[in-house]
Specification:
By secondary structure, the chain is an alpha+beta fold. The chain has a single domain, classed as 2-Layer Sandwich (Alpha-Beta Plaits), CATH 3.30.70. Helix content is 26%, strand content 25%. The protein contains four helices and eight strands, in the order βαβββαβββααβ. The longest helix has 14 residues. It is globular. The model has no long low-confidence stretch (mean pLDDT 93). Bound molecules: 7,8-dihydro-7,7-dimethyl-6-hydroxypterin. 7,8-dihydro-7,7-dimethyl-6-hydroxypterin (ROI) binds next to strand 4.
Protein backbone atom coordinates (compact mmCIF):
# COMPACT_ATOMS: atom_id res chain seq x y z
CA UNK A 1 0.00 0.00 0.00
CA UNK A 2 1.30 3.47 -0.83
CA UNK A 3 2.03 5.90 1.98
CA UNK A 4 0.97 9.57 1.96
CA UNK A 5 4.04 11.74 2.49
CA UNK A 6 4.31 15.51 2.84
CA UNK A 7 7.32 17.43 1.59
CA UNK A 8 8.32 20.97 2.54
CA UNK A 9 9.93 23.06 -0.19
CA UNK A 10 12.03 26.15 0.46
CA UNK A 11 14.34 28.41 -1.53
CA UNK A 12 15.92 31.84 -1.13
CA UNK A 13 18.55 31.83 -3.89
CA UNK A 14 18.61 31.97 -7.68
CA UNK A 15 15.01 32.84 -8.46
CA UNK A 16 13.18 31.10 -5.60
CA UNK A 17 9.74 30.89 -7.28
CA UNK A 18 11.34 29.19 -10.29
CA UNK A 19 13.28 26.83 -8.00
CA UNK A 20 10.02 25.81 -6.33
CA UNK A 21 8.19 25.35 -9.65
CA UNK A 22 11.06 23.23 -11.01
CA UNK A 23 11.14 21.16 -7.83
CA UNK A 24 7.38 20.52 -8.03
CA UNK A 25 7.87 19.32 -11.62
CA UNK A 26 10.70 17.04 -10.45
CA UNK A 27 8.56 15.61 -7.61
CA UNK A 28 6.06 14.51 -10.29
CA UNK A 29 8.78 12.34 -11.85
CA UNK A 30 9.80 10.32 -8.77
CA UNK A 31 9.54 6.60 -9.43
CA UNK A 32 6.82 4.52 -7.73
CA UNK A 33 5.28 7.77 -6.51
CA UNK A 34 2.11 9.63 -7.43
CA UNK A 35 2.01 13.39 -6.99
CA UNK A 36 -1.14 14.36 -5.09
CA UNK A 37 -1.00 18.15 -4.94
CA UNK A 38 0.75 21.21 -3.62
CA UNK A 39 -0.02 24.39 -1.69
CA UNK A 40 0.26 27.88 -3.06
CA UNK A 41 3.65 29.58 -2.75
CA UNK A 42 4.37 31.70 0.31
CA UNK A 43 6.97 34.36 1.02
CA UNK A 44 8.48 34.02 4.50
CA UNK A 45 11.03 35.84 6.63
CA UNK A 46 14.23 33.83 7.04
CA UNK A 47 14.47 31.76 10.16
CA UNK A 48 18.12 31.81 11.19
CA UNK A 49 20.64 34.54 10.32
CA UNK A 50 18.51 37.48 9.20
CA UNK A 51 20.91 38.99 6.68
CA UNK A 52 19.70 36.69 3.94
CA UNK A 53 16.86 37.04 1.43
CA UNK A 54 13.26 36.08 2.23
CA UNK A 55 12.31 32.51 1.42
CA UNK A 56 9.66 31.10 -0.85
CA UNK A 57 8.00 28.07 0.76
CA UNK A 58 5.39 25.52 -0.23
CA UNK A 59 4.28 22.01 0.74
CA UNK A 60 3.54 19.07 -1.56
CA UNK A 61 1.76 15.76 -0.97
CA UNK A 62 2.71 12.48 -2.65
CA UNK A 63 1.59 8.87 -2.39
CA UNK A 64 4.65 6.67 -2.54
CA UNK A 65 5.57 3.01 -2.62
CA UNK A 66 9.18 3.89 -1.76
CA UNK A 67 10.36 3.60 1.82
CA UNK A 68 11.17 6.82 3.66
CA UNK A 69 14.96 6.64 3.21
CA UNK A 70 14.66 5.95 -0.52
CA UNK A 71 12.24 8.85 -0.89
CA UNK A 72 14.72 11.02 1.03
CA UNK A 73 17.52 10.16 -1.40
CA UNK A 74 15.23 11.02 -4.32
CA UNK A 75 14.63 14.41 -2.67
CA UNK A 76 18.36 14.94 -2.13
CA UNK A 77 19.06 14.13 -5.75
CA UNK A 78 16.53 16.80 -6.83
CA UNK A 79 18.25 19.30 -4.49
CA UNK A 80 21.61 18.40 -6.02
CA UNK A 81 20.34 18.70 -9.60
CA UNK A 82 19.04 22.19 -8.77
CA UNK A 83 22.47 23.31 -7.66
CA UNK A 84 22.25 22.85 -3.90
CA UNK A 85 25.66 23.35 -2.33
CA UNK A 86 26.00 21.35 0.85
CA UNK A 87 28.08 22.25 3.86
CA UNK A 88 27.47 26.01 3.81
CA UNK A 89 26.59 28.14 6.82
CA UNK A 90 24.20 26.45 9.24
CA UNK A 91 20.76 27.92 8.57
CA UNK A 92 22.25 29.95 5.73
CA UNK A 93 20.75 30.67 2.29
CA UNK A 94 19.95 27.82 -0.09
CA UNK A 95 18.80 27.28 -3.67
CA UNK A 96 16.51 24.43 -2.73
CA UNK A 97 15.60 22.60 0.42
CA UNK A 98 13.27 19.59 0.32
CA UNK A 99 12.26 18.35 3.77
CA UNK A 100 10.43 15.12 4.37
CA UNK A 101 7.86 16.42 6.87
CA UNK A 102 5.61 13.42 7.40
CA UNK A 103 5.64 9.85 6.12
CA UNK A 104 2.25 8.33 6.84
CA UNK A 105 2.13 8.15 10.60
CA UNK A 106 5.61 6.66 10.86
CA UNK A 107 8.03 7.91 13.48
CA UNK A 108 11.58 7.69 12.20
CA UNK A 109 14.80 8.59 13.99
CA UNK A 110 18.00 7.57 12.22
CA UNK A 111 21.21 9.52 11.64
CA UNK A 112 19.87 10.53 8.21
CA UNK A 113 16.25 11.21 8.89
CA UNK A 114 13.91 12.40 11.61
CA UNK A 115 10.18 12.14 10.87
CA UNK A 116 7.95 13.95 11.75
CA UNK A 117 10.34 16.76 10.84
CA UNK A 118 11.53 18.29 14.13
CA UNK A 119 10.77 21.88 13.13
CA UNK A 120 7.31 21.14 11.79
CA UNK A 121 5.20 22.46 14.64
CA UNK A 122 7.26 25.61 15.19
CA UNK A 123 7.37 26.91 11.63
CA UNK A 124 4.53 28.95 10.20
CA UNK A 125 6.06 28.55 6.72
CA UNK A 126 5.47 24.79 7.08
CA UNK A 127 2.21 24.71 9.09
CA UNK A 128 0.19 27.09 6.89
CA UNK A 129 0.99 25.52 3.50
CA UNK A 130 0.66 22.03 5.01
CA UNK A 131 -2.81 22.97 6.23
CA UNK A 132 -3.69 23.94 2.66
CA UNK A 133 -2.90 20.47 1.28
CA UNK A 134 -4.09 18.52 4.35
CA UNK A 135 -6.88 20.48 6.10
CA UNK A 136 -8.08 17.38 7.97
CA UNK A 137 -4.67 16.15 9.09
CA UNK A 138 -4.46 14.78 12.60
CA UNK A 139 -1.13 13.96 14.20
CA UNK A 140 -0.45 10.68 15.88
CA UNK A 141 -0.87 12.21 19.33
CA UNK A 142 -4.38 13.24 18.26
CA UNK A 143 -3.68 16.93 17.72
CA UNK A 144 -5.48 18.49 14.76
CA UNK A 145 -3.37 20.51 12.33
CA UNK A 146 -6.26 22.98 12.08
CA UNK A 147 -5.97 23.70 15.82
CA UNK A 148 -2.21 24.19 15.63
CA UNK A 149 -2.55 26.61 12.72
CA UNK A 150 -5.23 28.59 14.53
CA UNK A 151 -2.96 29.01 17.57
CA UNK A 152 0.24 29.68 15.66
CA UNK A 153 1.36 33.23 14.80
CA UNK A 154 1.74 33.66 11.05
CA UNK A 155 5.26 35.11 11.34
CA UNK A 156 4.61 37.63 8.57
CA UNK A 157 3.94 34.83 6.11
CA UNK A 158 2.49 36.16 2.83
CA UNK A 159 1.02 34.59 -0.25
CA UNK A 160 3.59 35.14 -2.96
CA UNK A 161 1.14 36.46 -5.54
CA UNK A 162 -0.92 38.39 -3.04
CA UNK A 163 1.34 40.37 -0.68
CA UNK A 164 -0.30 41.18 2.62
CA UNK A 165 -2.58 38.15 2.50
CA UNK A 166 -1.94 34.73 3.88
CA UNK A 167 -5.16 32.96 2.97
N1 LIG B 1 13.50 30.17 6.78
C1 LIG B 1 12.37 30.21 6.06
N2 LIG B 1 11.55 31.26 6.20
N3 LIG B 1 12.04 29.22 5.20
C2 LIG B 1 12.84 28.14 5.03
O1 LIG B 1 12.51 27.24 4.23
C3 LIG B 1 14.02 28.06 5.77
N4 LIG B 1 14.86 27.00 5.66
C4 LIG B 1 15.98 26.91 6.35
C5 LIG B 1 16.42 28.00 7.29
C6 LIG B 1 17.73 28.57 6.80
C7 LIG B 1 16.59 27.39 8.67
N5 LIG B 1 15.47 29.07 7.39
C8 LIG B 1 14.33 29.12 6.66
O2 LIG B 1 16.74 25.85 6.22
Amino acid sequence: MPVRAYIGLGSNQQNPPLQIHNALAALKQIRRTVFVGHSRLYRSRPMGPVDQPDFVNAVAAVDTCLDAHTLLSELQSIEDRQGRVRGGVRWGPRTLDLDLLLFGDEQIATDKLTVPHPGLLQRSFVLYPLYEVAPDLRFKEGKLLAELVKDHPDGELELLDNPGKRR
